[in-house]
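Input record (one chain):
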Amino acid sequence: MDQALNAYSAFVQVVRQVLFWLAIVVAVIALLDWLVRTRRVQPFGAVARFCRRYVDPLMVPVERRVVRSGGQPSSAPWWSLIVVVVGGLLLIALLEFLGRFFLQALWGFSSPGRLGLLLVSWTFALLRIALIVRVVSSWFSLSPYSRWIRWSYILTEWMLAPLRRIVPTFGPVDITPIVAFLLLALLQGFLRIP
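The corresponding structure, as predicted from the sequence alone:
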């Protein structure tokens, strides 16, 4: 089992290195394409021909989205770089999450008493994620009835409604999600749940 965990850790490290170098390559290509698009290099040189032949066809979907959103087509290379970097960070976070999930599952299934603790720990984690999604969605004025957000309201309203009666609001700022987050952490620590 330790060999499998070590192999998975090595795999994540390799993915991390590949994504780093991919981001470097995309950054260089984005810089070259941006220089060509803004005419900072000779538009009929070898670099411009390379960008028009190989890079611009890859940038077409990004450029369409940027233009539809009211942006300049010359910013498409930078948006491509942002997509690669953010996508890479999300992939690394997902791989690390899966590794921790696998470790927790192995620990939980090793004995019946631990399985109950594991399920309670996952419940606390799900409630924390729901609180975070609820708070972030309120920053962007997303509808609580949206299919992407509704689950967070369903999971958290049972604990936020009583807290709203106790905790005062500070103008338009509702701090009950912060209080609920802290109470969940205290309760988890008190119950000694990993």
